[in-house]
Design goal:
mainly alpha, 12 helices, globular
Length: 307
């Protein structure tokens, strides 16, 4: 039933995903919105909701453009279900915007497989990642992805390795200039928290334990098969899939370092894990097992709403 709906790219899938996202957003934001009921609050919450849904649309474009999955919509279903599993991800505007810019940077990075306008794409990627860092400091870890990509393409040209630093420096210089003009100081705009926390007590609830266990267990299981599947991909596409797997590792480190453990930090895992798990689902031959796999991912988040 579920596979028959999402195993092909259909417009109705975006409608279904829209309502899943709306449910996840409503669960997390309804009470805060009622507590501070105002026109300003309404526009803020509406903006955050459309940022969430816009992220899904960008994500789908990146996946299709780079042939990261087959012609289906499992990836956007999983992405929306992860939001439902961790509805707290819809509250933190800084992390939401940081994730959007990381996704935009990832889009440019994956397009390097064409080997056209390499310097421009590297510069753009660095710029997007730098902007993401201003919203959420630990997004800076995704800069590692640029050099992983250069290594995968065995790029020995020194200029290409320097370009990302130029892109980052450009944003820093612009930010410092804006700070001097508008705030009469150097680093007011770049005032981001560099704190780290290893206190995971906030995860010690039934809801978080189930959600994290499901995400990580299914994620690790899919990743094991994903690594094997990458070896079977076309040579031209292999670097793209390795970049996605590297993104999973970087996102996981970001979760570990997050200064506030409130669930929103798991947002960085949604994009790469959705791709990894979709590739695993596509590889499942037994239809009944594929249905069970997806059913668990749908039923558990819905059940968690009752807790």
């Amino acid at each position: 039933m579920i596979t028959s709906v999402f195993n092909k790219s259909k417009p109705i899938n975006f409608v279904i995903v829209f309502f899943i996202m709306l449910l996840a957003f409503s669960v997390a934001n309804f009470k805060p919105f009622i507590d501070s009921l105002s026109i300003a609050s309404f526009f803020k919450k509406t903006t955050l909701f459309f940022v969430c849904y816009f992220t899904i649309l960008i994500f789908n474009f990146v996946v299709v453009k780079n042939s990261l999955t087959k012609n289906n919509h499992y990836q956007i279903l999983l992405f929306s279900l992860f939001f439902l599993m961790f509805p707290e991800t819809t509250i933190n505007g800084d992390i939401l915007f940081a994730n959007v810019f990381i996704l935009l940077g990832l889009r440019r990075l994956l397009s390097l497989r064409t080997q056209i306008k390499i310097k421009k794409k590297l510069f753009d990627t660095a710029v997007w990642f730098a902007i993401a860092t201003f919203f959420y400091f630990w997004a800076i870890l995704f800069f590692v992805l640029i050099f992983v990509t250069l290594f995968l393409y065995t790029d020995n040209r020194i200029k290409n390795w320097i370009v990302p630093f130029v892109g980052f420096a450009t944003i820093v210089v612009i930010s410092i200039s804006a700070s001097i003009i508008f705030y009469d100081g150097f680093f007011e705009i770049i005032n981001v928290s560099k704190a780290v926390s290893y206190n995971y007590n906030s995860y010690n609830t039934t809801k978080f334990l189930i959600a994290i266990t499901l995400l990580l267990s299914f994620g690790v299981w899919s990743s094991i098969f994903f690594v094997k599947l990458v070896q079977k991909k076309k040579k031209a596409l292999k670097p793209s899939f390795k970049i996605i797997f590297a993104s999973v590792i970087i996102a996981f480190v970001t979760v570990i370092l997050a200064p506030q453990k409130n669930g929103s930090e798991f947002l960085f895992l949604f994009v790469p894990l959705s791709i990894v798990m979709t590739n695993y689902i596509e590889s499942i031959r037994e239809k009944w097992f594929k249905e069970v796999f997806l059913s668990i991912l749908i039923v558990v988040p819905l059940a968690l709403l009752m807790l």
